[in-house]
From TrEMBL:
Domain Response regulatory: 1-117
Limits of the OmpR/PhoB-type domain: 130-225
GO molecular-function term, one example from the UniProt record: phosphorelay response regulator activity
Protein name: Phosphate regulon transcriptional regulatory protein PhoB
Matches recorded under InterPro entries: CheY-like_superfamily (IPR011006), OmpR/PhoB-type_DNA-bd (IPR001867), Sig_transdc_resp-reg_C-effctor (IPR016032), Sig_transdc_resp-reg_receiver (IPR001789), WalR-like (IPR039420), WH-like_DNA-bd_sf (IPR036388)
Length: 225
């Protein structure tokens, strides 16, 4: 089951028709408020959210989905007419799994939907027990999705958290920028590797003095030690 939130009637009907023609069950809504009522009855396997919506926009809907227990792990694809890398980073940082800029072709749309669902299924089947990681003064509690430095809670974005968890789960292992992009942003997403550098920079800043556990391996990538 796929839920679509799109205020443009023609686009909403086109997306619905394309997905149903590809054997997906679909429910489409003009706003997040209407969708919220349906989520109480049934949680879908994928959300497709337009960013530019009247009232509550797609990014705010995404924020809510990522903090609600019943939807926090459900994959989300963002659709928008905006196509700059900054827009992509913002949505992905909040926990989106993919980002498709309008206008797009139907075949690409269906392909990206299937790819996100495949990744979600693979992630679920390969999921490990929740991790409790500690290195230096940094502690990561995966069950609560919380990070503390010296016992003080640190607020991280969705991607910052996943990036820290990746590095801390294998201390001493060097991850290249491309490996990080593939593991954190997804193999089907095309993004400049400078995005990794930007996230490492903000992550170090938020960890304060303990940010030094993240080490740069020149011309390769990053590790924690």
């Amino acid at each position: 089951m796929i839920y679509i939130v799109e205020d443009d009637v023609e686009v909403r009907e086109m997306e619905t028709y394309a997905l149903k023609s590809s054997s997906f069950d679909v429910m489409a809504f003009e706003c997040g408020k209407v969708m919220d009522e349906q989520v109480k009855t049934r949680v879908p396997d994928l959300f497709i959210l337009d960013i530019m919506l009247p009232g509550e926009d797609g990014l705010n809907i995404l924020k809510r989905l990522r903090v609600q227990e019943n939807t926090k792990d459900i994959p989300v694809i963002m659709l928008t007419a905006k196509g700059t890398e900054l827009d992509k980073v913002k949505g992905l940082d909040l926990g989106a799994d993919d980002y498709i800029a309008k206008p797009f072709g139907i075949l690409e749309f269906i392909s990206r939907v299937r790819a996100v669902l495949r990744r979600s299924e693979r992630s679920s089947s390969e999921s490990m027990e929740a991790l409790n990681l500690a290195l230096g003064g940094v502690t990561l509690d995966d069950q609560r999705r919380s990070v503390t430095v010296g016992g003080i809670a640190v607020e991280l974005t969705f991607k910052e958290y996943e990036l820290l968890k990746l590095l801390m789960s294998r201390p001493g292992t060097v991850f290249s920028r491309q490996q990080i992009l593939e593991k954190i942003w997804g193999v089907d997403f095309d993004m400049d590797t400078r995005t990794v550098d930007m996230h490492i920079k903000t992550l170090r800043q938020k960890l304060g003095v303990q940010g030094s556990i993240i080490q740069t391996v020149r011309n390769v990538g990053y590790k924690v030690q």
